[in-house]
Design a protein that fits this description.
Number of domains: 2
Shape: globular
CATH superfamily of the largest domain: Medium-chain alcohol dehydrogenases, catalytic domain
Largest sheet: 7 strands, mixed
CATH topology of the largest domain: Quinone Oxidoreductase, Chain A, domain 1
CATH class of the largest domain: Alpha Beta
Number of strands: 17
CATH architecture of the largest domain: Alpha-Beta Complex
Mean pLDDT: 88
Distance between the termini: 9 Å
Structural class: alpha/beta
Radius of gyration: 20 Å
Helix content: 10-25%
Strand content: 15-25%
Low-confidence stretches: 262-297
Order of helices and strands: EEEHEEHEHEHHEHEHEHEEEHEHEHEHE
Length: about 400
């Protein structure tokens, strides 16, 4: 089969690899009918999410049809059309039973302390081969896969494999409630769903911060107030919009590869087949002025702005990806403002079913965020365009079927 293979930082390719097989009784092999390129994939290609093992298949978003099934999977059959949540969970450990499915004790082959298991990730996830492929082995299929109802097509379903649930999870972490004013930092695909989810949870106002016109326009079309950080200081703009108080809730939907004002990406995947991309190495200068944290060239820029823009006793939800090696955070300023901070990987298996029902019954259409569709054979070009944040490339769906 064809699949996207990670070789080294900046070096990926579409290769012919062996078809996956059933390895455990709870496995299923799914023929992918839709996949996608995510910003998290770019973190790995750029090297800002380290620890990738050469030969790993990339991708953690998938929709498909079950082709083979282990004898321990009793709730699905061959031919079932399924959504593959990007994180994997067993369904029976204490964490899964409480809804913390991203912290499953059983799914990560490296052990219970290894953290979230997801497809196409670094060595800390075993790794488990990803979904930018024609076929995929899905561990713990009985507890992880979700059967798709009729009426939810592949294009809508692929948006619920990761980014819609993650955006919703970010709004949950931020504890958005009726009437809240919310700031969403990052108007990429996850940020767009964070905007939509904040409104779903009752937010009165949502302010979205980015620098790209097409992304800000998309946020504005959802009813958000747009702030372009290339044109004005986003913290000062938010304070002006809130009468100097700040927002009640903030969501960091950016993570480590933030784009700084008047600059390009911190590291580039433009040469993804030539291996010329480098890991970001930034030593920021830190200054505190008037009680606000002001970064110089900070890898945590979105976090810095979030803390500065929050009202006292506000809540910050962090869903942007940060590597284990990051140690920078404006903890003193956050503590002095009594800010509540919640973060983590999305508990997809617990969050997603209710969102599928919203889409099935027509109360929300996620398709507004899908901007580009490409066949798998064009995936390398899609990575390059997505990495450059070219206009119109907000979310990329792939068609893996030959």
């Amino acid at each position: 089969m064809k699949a996207v293979v990670f070789h080294s930082v900046g070096n990926i390719s579409l290769d012919t690899v062996p078809d996956p097989t059933i390895q455990h009784d709870q496995d299923a092999v799914v023929r992918l009918t839709a996949s996608a390129v995510c910003v998290t994939d770019l973190h790995m290609v750029r090297g800002t999410l380290p620890g990738m093992k050469p030969g790993t298949l990339l991708g953690h978003e998938g929709v498909g049809v079950i082709e083979k099934i282990g004898k321990g999977v009793r709730n699905f059959k061959r031919g079932d059309r399924v959504l593959i949540p990007s994180t994997i969970s067993c369904g029976f450990c204490s964490y899964c039973r409480k809804g913390y499915t991203a912290q499953c004790d059983e799914a990560n082959p490296n052990g219970a302390a290894a953290g979230t298991a997801f497809f196409g990730g670094p060595q800390s996830t075993d790794p488990i081969n990803g979904l930018q492929a024609q076929y995929a082995r899905t561990p713990h299929a009985n507890a992880s896969l979700i059967k798709l109802p009729e009426g939810v097509d592949d294009e809508r379903a692929i948006l619920m494999s990761d980014i819609f649930p993650t955006g919703y999870f970010g709004a949950q972490l931020a504890e958005v409630t009726k009437g809240d004013t919310v700031a969403v930092f990052g108007a990429g695909p996850v940020g767009q769903f964070a905007v939509a989810s904040a409104f779903m949870l009752g937010a009165g106002r949502v302010i979205v911060v980015d620098r790209l016109k097409d992304r800000l326009d998309m946020g504005r079309a959802q009813g958000a107030e747009a702030v372009n950080f290339d044109e004005e200081d986003p913290v000062q703009a938010i304070l002006a919009l809130t009468g100097g108080v700040g927002v009640d809730r903030a969501i960091d939907a950016v993570g480590v590869d933030a784009v700084h004002a008047q600059q390009g990406p911190a590291a580039s995947a433009d040469n993804v087949t030539q291996g010329e991309s480098e890991s970001r190495a930034v030593t920021p200068e830190r200054n505190v002025s008037a009680g606000n944290w002001i970064p110089s060239d900070a890898p945590t820029q979105a976090l810095d702005w979030s803390i500065a823009a929050l009202a006292k006793a506000g809540t910050l939800g962090i869903i942007g990806v940060y590597p284990l090696t990051d140690r920078f955070f404006p903890i003193g300023v956050a503590m002095n403002k009594n800010v509540m901070i919640k973060m983590g990987n999305c508990n997809h298996r617990a969050v997603t079913p209710a969102l599928i029902e919203r889409v099935r019954n027509g109360s929300f259409d996620p398709l507004r965020v899908l901007t580009t569709r490409e066949p798998l054979k064009h995936v390398i070009d899609a990575y390059k365009a997505f990495d450059k944040r070219q206009p119109g490339w907000i979310k990329v769906a792939l068609e893996p079927v030959a």
